[in-house]
Amino acid sequence: MWSVANEPASELPPAAHYFKTVIAHTKALDPSRPVTFVTDANYALDHGAPYVDVICVNSYFSWYHDPGHLEVIPLQLTAQFENWYRTYQKPIIQSEYGADSVPGLHSVSAVVGTALTGQQMSLGEGGTTGPGCAGSVPRAAGLGSTRTSELCLCLPGEDSKICPWQWQKMK
């Protein structure tokens, strides 16, 4: 898959023409691969999303918004996937999520920047799939368990889990 941008200002109106042009050119150069860009814009405001084959979203729930409240992540993540899919009817990859931590900073509760919060994000409270991972979202499939390298592909409303390498089967 080709990605033509990372977190651009795709909520600005000129982004529609820009991404339509860039993505069409990329597909002309290599029609064998899907094309995307990674967004951090709101689904309702993203002007580039109509032109991609796969929606890639970077999200840091409980980090920039609701800091330290890990319990809200499954709700926010599910709502995000449902909103993106309902709007664009395209597969979704959670391209980044997570919590960073400062080495040596510890707390017994979920405090942004501590090692415990980062561990809870990756592993979940019981050491299983964390709230930022694909396992907490219905109809989502994931790869790996590291925070910013997590890839999960979600087709809300579908019965099956789709893995990124199954792109050809989806066409």
From TrEMBL:
One of its GO terms (molecular function) is carbohydrate binding. It comes from the Eukaryota. SUPFAM superfamilies: (Trans)glycosidases (SSF51445). GO terms for cellular component: extracellular space. Belongs to the glycosyl hydrolase 2 family. Residues 1-107 form the Glycoside hydrolase family 2 catalytic domain. The lineage of its organism: Eukaryota, Metazoa, Chordata, Craniata, Vertebrata. Gene3D superfamilies: Glycosidases. This is BGLR glucuronidase. GO terms for biological process: carbohydrate metabolic process; glucuronoside catabolic process.
